[in-house]
Amino acid sequence: MTEQVAEVITIDGPSGSGKGTISRLLANKLGWHFLDSGALYRLVGLASRRHAIDFEDKQGLATLAAHLDVEFVSDDEGWETRIFLEGEDVTNGIRSEECGNDASRVAAVQVVRDALFERQRAFLRPPGLIADGRDMGTVIFPTARLKIFLTASLEERASRRYKQLKEKGLNANLAALLDELAIRDERDKSRSAAPLVAAKDAVTIDTSNSGIDEVVAEVYALWLRVNE
Ligand code: C5P
Description:
The protein is an alpha/beta fold. The protein has one domain (7-226): P-loop containing nucleotide triphosphate hydrolases (Rossmann fold, 3-Layer(aba) Sandwich), CATH 3.40.50. 47% of the residues lie in helices and 17% in strands. It has nine helices and eight strands. It has helices spanning 19-30, 37-50, 58-66, 97-106, 110-121, 136-140, 154-167, 174-190, 212-226; strands at residues 7-12, 33-36, 70-74, 81-85, 88-89, 128-133, 146-151, 203-206. The strands form two sheets. Strands 2-6-1-7-8 form a five-stranded parallel sheet. A three-stranded antiparallel sheet has the order 3-4-5, with no helix packed on it. The longest helix is centred in the C-terminal third of the chain and has 17 residues, at 174-190. It is globular. It starts with 6 loop residues before the first strand and ends with a helix. The mean pLDDT is 92. The protein binds cytidine-5'-monophosphate. Cytidine-5'-monophosphate is lined by residues 15, 37-38, 41-42, 100, 103-104, 107, 133-135, 184, 188.
């Protein structure tokens, strides 16, 4: 029996660069699996609050991350994924800015990242995987044949987050979002553990002035070219 190889395209970049939507659309277009690695860090943040584990307690956080009871359940079309933490549906709850900020704090802890490494690698299954995150191309899937780094201006990213939160019926304040995104970006870029940086062999795409479909088409064309 020949082994079926799973392909992977990594999509990294800062919050609000369009990664989530673009990754999901690509996964659908290709019929591939999808890894939302940011959700894992959000879940560790949420679980640590629930279990009263201090963000300074690195070992406690790592143990929690290693034993995290989570389930990703996709609908039949593979479009919507519901996320369960210890049996409770937290799909919408983990999208709050508080959860994003907590995620960015626990994500700066190297032992937490180590604890989530294999869990992320396990998403790689045939026919392929779209891996969305900050270190997909640099750390988790360094041999990916196509690596994308998405960027967009801070203002554009904040305005997108604002719209997303409003659509979900969550509280949002544009000025506060700008500040929080700037702080989160700085923390993600300056941390010693897997800082947010484009892989050397990544293709950088600025999405500030592009529509979602345009970017999806661009990445898809790049993938076809890689396979020529
Ligand atoms: O992508 P999302 O906004 O859900 O990620 C939340 C936080 O999780 C990010 O700000 C980042 O600090 C962290 N993260 C990470 N590595 C990843 C994905 C997310 O450090 N691969």
